[in-house]
Amino acid sequence: MAQNSSWLRRGVVEIFPHSTAEESQVENLDYILQTVERPLRVKLGIDPTGTDIHLGHSIPVRKLRAFQDAGHTAVLIIGDFTARIGDPTGKSEVRRQLTEAEVKQNAQTYLDQMRPILDFDTPGRLEVRYNSEWLSQLDLGKILDLLSTMTVGQMLEKEGFDLRFKKQSPIFIHEFLYPLMQGYDSVAIDADVELGGTDQKFNIAVGRDLQRHFGKKPQFGLLLPILIGTDGVQKMSKSLGNYIGLNEDPFNKYQKLQAVPDNLLPQYFELLTNLDLDKLPQNPRKQQKLLAWEVVKQYHGEIAASEAQKAADSGGEAGSIPEFSLNAVQFPVKLFKILADSGLCKSSSEGRRKIQENGVKIDGERVSEVDITFNQASELNGRILQVGKNKFVRLVDG
Known about the structure:
- By secondary structure, the protein is of the alpha/beta class.
- The protein folds into three domains: 6-224, 3-Layer(aba) Sandwich (Rossmann fold); 250-319, Tyrosyl-Transfer RNA Synthetase (Orthogonal Bundle); 323-396, Structural Genomics Hypothetical 15.5 Kd Protein In mrcA-pckA Intergenic Region, Chain A (Roll), CATH 3.10.290.10.
- The chain has 16 helices and 13 strands.
- The strands form three sheets. Strands 1-6-5-2-3-4 form a six-stranded mixed beta sheet, with helices on both faces. It has a five-stranded mixed beta sheet with strand order 7-13-12-9-10, with no helix packed on it.
- The longest helix is centred in the middle third of the chain and has 17 residues, at 173-189.
């Protein structure tokens, strides 16, 4: 199943190892792709530590789809066990440990959001595995074996640990287990290639070491860029508010994308679309509109993309979303009452049920508290209230 691997490299920052010596071609992924006679097992691990995925998270998922389209097997590992620790990469303090129920619920939302990207239907093209399958079975002897493969000094070379150690911030022993458990995932599923952001190089390298330790062929690591957020400065992050969520409605997504700073357009086109980069329009405004339409189309279809574009062109925010005046609302008020009064739901009881079903969002953020209360109109003025994928109003104080 030899193939031209150049298009699989789109947006890739680094592939390791990468030997160019003829005698070491087995450490060259391009050579392997040309000569391999079986589908490669391409691993991507995702810890469901939250409920929403943004476009930055979609980059390795899109690359996983590229390998699927090339005939290889995508192995999507849901880190239901590792999520209960949380990846310490880039974190300045210990992460809150999640419950098993929280992880299970988050995992389902992650899979739902990845369905527009991955091929879930073609037999043999996708394995969805949960790492509790093997990690929950490790006994103390096996854990000691894992721990014996790394020194404390090696572990402290990891970026987040190094920073915390220098700041004398606490590092808990269970956090040291995280990269070892993620690496053991590669052993358990016989990964040939592992995908990840550039911040995952340490963890992927641990997977290689553990595969070698357990007598298996070490995987290749394929690293992808960290997407810069809509502020044009920092990495895309929900906590920084500079993100575009996969679950956002088509109009919100379109509006954010058509406002992406000019300096980010090349990266966004390369990483978030399949468009020919040599055939993009020269005008930055036309590029923004094309980017917005293309990305919305991927997740919601051509009709939704065209409707979002038409709404934006015909007046943007003010003219495209129905408004609901908060003047007639008696504050303090519960959100489910506003859902009924605005016509998004037929009654307050339906509004409560929609919140319980995770079907209500404010400005693209899912509402989980059934009895959430607002004390004054200024808390909601200008915000977009949404039920499901297609019903939304803009709340206005006036």
